[in-house]
Amino acid sequence: MIEIKNVSKQFNTADGFIEALKNVSISIPNGDIFGIIGMSGAGKSTLVRCINMLERPTEGAIEIDGVNLCELSESNLRNIRRDITMIFQGFNLLMQRNCLGNVCFPLELAGKSKSEAKKRALELLDIVGLGDKAKAYPAQLSGGQQQRVAIARALATNPKVLLCDEATSALDPTTTNSILELIRSINEKLGITVVIITHQMSVVESICKHVAILDKGEVVEQGEVTEVFSHPKSEAARHLVFPEGNFDSLLVNESEQRFIRVIFNGARATGSPLIAKMAVEKGIEANIAYASTKSIGGKAYGSMLLGVTDDNTIVNTAIRYLTNTPDVLAEEVRVNV
Amino acid sequence: MFNDLLSEATLNEAWRIIEAEFLTAIWETVYVTLLATAFSILIGLPLGVLLVVGEKDGVLPLPLWLLQALNIIINLLRSVPFLILMILVFPLTRLIVGTVVGTTASIVPLVIAAFPFVARLAESSLREVSPNTIEMAQSMGASPLQIITKVMIPESIPSLISNATIAVTTILGYSAMSGIIGGGGLGKIAINYGYYRYKYLIMIAAVVLLIILVQIFQSVGTRLAAKADKRLKKKST
Ligand SMILES: Nc1ncnc2c1ncn2[C@@H]1O[C@H](COP(=O)(O)OP(=O)(O)OP(=O)(O)O)[C@@H](O)[C@H]1O
Ligand SMILES: [Mg+2]
After folding, report:
1. Which SS3 state, helix, strand or coil, does residue A112 take?
2. For tag attachment on chain A, is the N or C end more exposed, with fewer CB atoms within 10 Å?
3. A14 C-alpha to ligand 1 centroid (Å)
């Protein structure tokens, strides 16, 4: 259990006082995949860096399984950091070491013998699917492969928690998906708690169980992903669900409608044809209120907002129909303005 | 005074001197240069590390007064002209080597002149390591010493080698200058024969040899740096 208790963080800069985090409280259960989402500058990186004390909170406490990290000495903190490892947007591999050397790095820091470290590193490279790249240098790998090495490195010390700060933001959607898939399988197989920092809805939707929305240093909403995104209460949450920010006008003009959010996660079926097929097969007419989908290699990614007639049977049939399509998620969005 | 520069007599005489003295002189120059470089790195590299890690948001912040003192000493030493520095350090040279003349004695002022320069070169190499990489190491629980020895220095090796090459060639130039007051090697020959005895041919030969030495050091250094840099490797392996 990671408990972030009333954490505030202020920075004193030349331009004045910055309140990066304001009284943030989040509980992350063990074994969870927890998303923290927000706009640029919302304080996401600051928050995640507080979790492993790279940044000390100005106020509040970070407790991991009951241990308050803020009270630990530097050397105890260094030990506990082996339990809370991190992957980064820029991968941050050691460029002068090969993959094997990179994965051995945290083991060397922990004082493991060369041969022990090497054995474990090779196992880990196998787990992330790079068993044949042990001797390759980071410069010889693609971004996705580099992130895999970084993941293997982060797993080397058998951590309890894996922090991911925009770990997929530098990658294309297909690679993003394969990395998220890897993170998910690690979470399932090893039971590691995963904290995912991102500004992309799609990342949270495809992998997280819980989510907290951070806006200008404050948590404005948190809970189960489906719950939060289907009942966005805060301005920030609504902005994420309706990126165009035109929800209010939608609501006024089409008050007889209910809304279904459709998420494409590498689906074979693409947007409009799917809606057309639904009209033919189920006789449900849906109008596309908003769509932001991309087709990459014949697979669709992104999300769509459908308006359908305000009728329980129609809404439920549509959701069932859409959800039954592979790699498509659908849920009703209710906004009580 | 140049008209008999290429007469047969001068040529023969020059050749005799070259045969008799140049091999030793080259050896002395190389030996002084390499030894002085080694000592300069021994002192300069740790200083360079301190300059980087000791900063306010460095890995191992030093007291501000100490950091400033280091900076001032380095700047001071770097601003004294080499010939004057040589004379100024005579007492130290005598203390360490026992004499102030000769090849070995010239190593002392060379090191004093070069280590501040090497410290600055090392500083600039180490600053090339991305703060993100250092943060990664910290997030894995690396201690300041581990960050220095396992991240900062290994990650900047190619740049450190390039800068060491600059140091070697600069020290080679200084060592030639030390020939004016007691130092040995090619510099001494150039000055003794060329300046004091108007044997310009010998001077030119010595200078050409110095140029060749610089070229050799430089190309070996460049090659080593490129070979050490794993970022440049093509995708072929
Ligand atoms: N070391 C620092 N010194 C001063 N201000 C900082 C520091 N780190 C972060 N900030 C400020 O704190 C605020 C939050 O920054 P943070 O990096 O946490 O945002 P973020 O949500 O991660 O944004 P992004 O999505 O762009 O990465 C910003 O206003 C930033 O300028
Ligand atoms: Mg960030």
Report:
1. coil
2. C
3. 14
Rounded CA-CA distance B126/B214 in Å is 25
Nearest bound ligand to CA A55? 1
Q: With CA atoms as reference, report the closest residue to A36 among A166, A170, A147, A160.
A: A166
Cα B170 to chain centroid distance, Å, stands at 5
pLDDT-based confidence at residue B236 (cuts at 50, 70, 90): very low
Read off the tokens for A134: 């042990």
- Residue A23's region, left for phi above 0, alpha for psi from -120 to 50, else beta, is left
Single out the residue of B159, B214, B164, B200 nearest to residue B26, CA to CA.
Answer: B214
Closest by Cβ to A54, choosing from B135, B150, B228: B135
Helix (H, G, I), strand (E, B) or coil at A218: strand
How far is it, in rounded angstroms, from Cα A97 to Cα A35? Answer: 32
Are A109 and B141 an interchain contact pair (Cβ–Cβ within 8 Å)? yes
Residues from chain A that touch B150, judged by Cβ atoms under 8 A, are 105, 108-109
**For A281-326, what is the HEC assignment?**
HHCCCCEEEEEEEEEECCEEEEEEEEEEECCHHHHHHHHHHHHCCC
Q: Which two tokens stand for residue A35?
A: 């998303």
Q: What is this model's ipTM?
A: 0.88
Q: What's the first-to-final CA gap in chain A, in angstroms?
A: 34
Helix spans in B128-199 (H): 131-139, 144-146, 153-155, 157-177, 186-189, 197
Structure tokens at A187: 């979470």
Taking a C-beta distance cutoff of 8 angstroms, is the pair B7, B175 a contact?
no
Give per-residue pLDDT as tens, A257-291: 788 888 887 787 677 788 888 888 888 888 887 77
Q: Which residue, judged by its Cα, is nearest atom 16 of ligand 1?
A: A43
User: For residue A294, what are the CA distances in angstroms to A172, A208, A286, A306, A307?
Assistant: 11, 21, 20, 17, 20
- Chain A CB contacts of B152 below 8 Å: none
Q: How far is A335 from chain B (nearest CA, A)?
A: 40
Of B50, B101, B98, B106, the residue nearest B73 (C-alpha): B50
Model confidence band, residue B235 (pLDDT cutoffs 50, 70, 90): very low
Cα A227 to Cα A225: distance, rounded to the nearest angstrom: 5
Q: Please answer whether residues A247 and A299 qualify as being in contact, where contact means their C-beta atoms are separated by less than 8 angstroms.
A: no
Question: For residue A125, what pLDDT is reported?
Answer: 97
Summarize pLDDT for A202-243 with one digit per residue, the tens: 899 889 999 999 999 999 999 998 888 888 888 888 888 776
Residue A99's nearest CA partner among B145, B233, B146, B134 is: B233
Q: Residue B219, Cα to own-chain centre: how many angstroms?
A: 15
